């Protein structure tokens, strides 16, 4: 349980702060997602997402682990919802909540892709899709150094 708290502090917290720093900018969100990706691959090692791994292993059998995993998802969803209030004010509240949930789930998927050593193009395509949730006319594309950039 202490590992969950540490993960929320050291991985989820910085992601949510990065999303907050993004203001209303899709580019800022892209940077926050890229930063999160780097946290899931320290030193190039594809660790992936501790919460995902724990949910798969323990959430069905350990009530406390399930509560902590749900707390992590709420933290992510709330951070993305605050971003969307600024970035997509034209969206309805239900639409923002739905997008925030998709972004939170997308972070778990990112962790699974990394942990399973998925090919780089698949990871970048996933990140591109997450960015497109914010500004559908834009697509985050892979740069020359496995980073993302936005195209209109």
List the uncertain runs: none
Which value, in Å, is the CA radius of gyration? 15 Å
Percent helix among the residues?
over 70%
How does the major sheet shape up? 2 strands, antiparallel
| Shape, principal axes of CA atoms | globular
Distance between the termini: 43 Å
Largest beta sheet: what is the strand line-up? 1-2
The run of helices and strands is HHHHHHEE
Structural class: mainly alpha
Q: How many β-strands, per DSSP? A: 2
Query: What is the percentage of strand-forming residues?
Result: 5-15%
Report the total helices: 6
Q: What is the residue-mean pLDDT, rounded to a whole number?
A: 83
Task: Give a short summary of the structure.
The protein is mainly α and 152 residues long. The chain is built from 6 helices and 2 strands; from the N terminus they run H-H-H-H-H-H-E-E.
Question: What's the topology here?
Answer:
Blueprint: H1 2-21, H2 26-39, H3 50-59, H4 63-87, H5 93-115, H6 120-134, E1 139-142, E2 148-151
Antiparallel strand pairs: 1-2
Helix pairs in contact: 1-2, 1-4, 3-4, 3-5, 4-5, 5-6
Describe the structure.
This protein is mainly alpha-helical and 152 residues long. The chain is 70% helix and 5% strand. It contains six helices and two strands, in the order H-H-H-H-H-H-E-E. It has helices at residues 2-21, 26-39, 50-59, 63-87, 93-115, 120-134; strands spanning 139-142, 148-151. The chain has a two-stranded antiparallel sheet. Strand 1 (139-142) and strand 2 (148-151) form a beta hairpin. The N and C termini lie far apart (43 Å).
